[in-house]
Amino acid sequence: DGGENWNKLLSTSNSVRSIVVNPIRTGVVYAATFGAGVYKSVNGGKNWSTINQGLSNSNVRDIAMDPAKPETLFAATSTGGGIHESLNGGLTWTQSSDPDARTLAIEKIRFDTLDPNRVYAATFDAGVLRSADRGVTWARINRGLTNFRTSSLAIVDTLSYVGTDGTGVFY
To answer: Is the terminal CB of the chain with fewer CB neighbours within 10 Å at N or C?
Structure first.
């Protein structure tokens, strides 16, 4: 009904920070929670299970789905957890081996809409990370940022935007 009425699908006392839906199998839904890790439903939210095997940090701030390969997911976690990747729809997770992507608190993570090999991550206090190889390696890309406490990202075509805590939006 276009959001006129809302029905609870997942009961949790934890903050749900991000939701993604598989564009091919729309009954597959993921919910990233701050404190309980990642939940997955395969039936449109009727039933949920936690899928945290391999997550080193259950404070998941964001989740991103590879637009070319929906079974590939990235989870953005708090300090000490960094970025985790799943290649099997969340059944197992592997923590990034990159020093920054492994230890920093990641606020948001997004795939480039034109090139899914490129992935961007907004960090709590180290600016923006970018990977050109689907998350194998990461580099800081902060030229022009006056505040490295980044909190949001939007990647559309060739445009990249980052929101900061207290100093605005940069592109």
So the answer is: N
